Amino acid sequence: MRKMKKIMSLALVLSLSVSLLAGCGSKKEEPAAPGGDTATETTDSVEGKNFAILVKSAGNPYNEKESAGFKEVIEAAGATAIVKAPESATAEAQITMINELVAQKVDAIAIAGNDFDALQPALKKAMDEGIKVLSLDASVNSNSRMVHINQADSEKIGRTLIQATNEMVKGEGQIAILSATSQAANQNTWIEWMKTELEEGDYSKLELVKIAYGDDEFQKSVDETEALIKNYPDLKAIIAPTTVGIMAAAKVVTDKGLVGKIAVTGLGLPSEMAEYITNGSCPWMYLWNPIDVGALAAHASISLVKGDITGAEGDKFEAGTLGSYEVIKAADGGTEVLLGAPFKFDPENIDEWKSVY
Ligand code: RAM
């Protein structure tokens, strides 16, 4: 735990002064990239090239941290980072922005998808024009991307959240999930693993009564939490696998004087959740470093544009201070790069982390 914290702090500090291994890319012949790109050229430098990141929506600090990590790495490589975020987390808004980026002839697009399938025509068009496309955080389907940057093992996240909740409610009672949008691939995958854990484990006295969607909007997440509490007076826990949702749920539970009666857990930013971990509304929660998710996506984007990788299984690349990564097979039939393990935040460590991210 101490070692882990040290490594993460070090990575964070170093990521602020990261210098890329510009000029170290080895030239090699690559097969055609998924998505129809015909030829992959190789280049040693990305100076002057344009790298876009398109996150789920504006006003979400998690997305802002992802974008900051991306920008830092891209600019350190002498390239330009274009940061895009639609007002709300919809596929339509992202399609408009993808089309703009294609018209701008950017070199790469890293996207946290608001829909698994709906972005395919727009992203395929981008790849047909030679733009390198990858997803991060929330994947798009394997025909719409060259590789996905996955923040942590999805099965582990889903199963761990049920095990934690079970412990918090002492094995008994009604529980609910407060998610982001109903179309988000990351939340939906985690929820599927939560359901699998509920079926496979010894949870006969736990009852999942409802999955609500706050759309990663704070007020909607507050409203949905209030509705859960009203409609299920015996509710014992809320699992929010979204940083926006978990903060909204913890605030409502706190404001209504329900600390100790309803436990909130899920995935939260330490900076936003410190007060709720301290007051006990959220006994503990999990996350990874969103700055690193963005930074890893930037390194992968650069390696794709340089032609060092195509996103094929077995591809290897250097991600600066984050270390070396390998492209592996993803559960959805495509490929992915796994950032690392999720990290647990509790009353003992939250004060050390709240200023980090
Ligand atoms: C929210 C977003 C994001 C997710 C985190 C955990 O900020 O939905 O996609 O990864 O929560």
From TrEMBL:
Gene Ontology MF terms: carbohydrate binding
UniProt xrefs under InterPro entries = Bact_Solute-Bind_Prot2, Peripla_BP_I, RhaS, SBP_2_dom
Q: What keywords are annotated for this sequence in UniProt? A: Signal
SUPFAM superfamilies linked: Periplasmic binding protein-like I
Q: Where are the transmembrane segments?
A: none
Q: Which domain of life is it from?
A: Bacteria
Q: Which NCBIfam families match?
A: RhaS (TIGR02637)
Q: How is this protein named in the record?
A: Monosaccharide ABC transporter substrate-binding protein (CUT2 family)
